[in-house]
Amino acid sequence: MSITTNTANNPHLTRSYVLKDATEAQDVYDAWAATYDSDLRDPSQNYVGPAAVARLVANALGTPTISPDLRLLDAGCGTGLAGVELARLGAKHIDGRDLSPGMLAVARQSGAYEGLQTTDLNKPLEVEDGEYDVVVCVGTFTHTHVGPQALRELVRVTKHDGVVVATVLDDIWESQGFKAEVAGLEAGGKAKVLSSESGDYRKGCGVTATFVVLRVL
Questions:
Q1: H/E segment holding residue 101
Q2: In what residue span(s) does the Methyltransferase type domain sit (predicted)?
């Protein structure tokens, strides 16, 4: 498969874009966990996606901060970069799920999460319908990771009138069915698209993503 997204020659990131299965994905991210944050904060990457998503959550809620009473799920939480940004805006009850135990170990050290669990997002979530007020998914809808069908699960576990915010690499937004999946969720009366706009994602190397904001119906 041809990968057009710029990795700025980071070997872990380059390998992460050609994963064959969940076992390989877990191995790659476990090996990367110790340096993941520093790698993506490096000016060559300047990973601004998590902070942008936290701001979009607050905007969708109509408040400058996030109420500490709300329950949030960070799906594909990795080392916790998004959880930290959400906590900075006031979130207190954040659960994180990720395929990599190594990444979850780093996320646990952040102190941003109430609960952390190993989860394959390509499978149905073991979560009740409407469990969360807000669900975010940052950095997971990318090459060879999680398919667009997972968006339906994120909507399912979100309460009526709750918010889902997800990033999808622009390289795959249309070609791998994410745009069509979002349109299908709206057409099927599952969610209303509040916004769906391309923006800076890994700003240091010019990589953009579509930031999708949904209101669950």
A1: helix 101-110
A2: 73-165
Judge whether 19 lies within some domain. Answer: yes
DSSP β-ladder status, 191-202 and 132-141: unpaired
Number of structural domains the chain divides into = 1
10: helix, strand or coil: coil
Residue 47 DSSP code: B
**pLDDT per residue over 112-155, tens digit each?**
999 999 999 999 999 999 999 999 999 999 887 899 999 999 99
Angstrom distance (rounded) from CA 162 to CA 58: 12
pTM higher than 0.90: yes
Report the Cα 101 to chain-centroid distance in Å: 17
H-only helix segments in 63-212: 81-88, 101-110, 150-156, 170-173, 178-187
Q: Is residue 23 part of a domain?
A: yes
Q: How far apart are the first and last CA of the chain?
A: 37
Instruction: Quote the domain boundaries for residue 162.
Output: 11-216
Q: Which residue has the higher pLDDT, 4 or 212?
A: 212
With respect to residue 4, please indicate whether it lies within any of the assigned structural domains: no
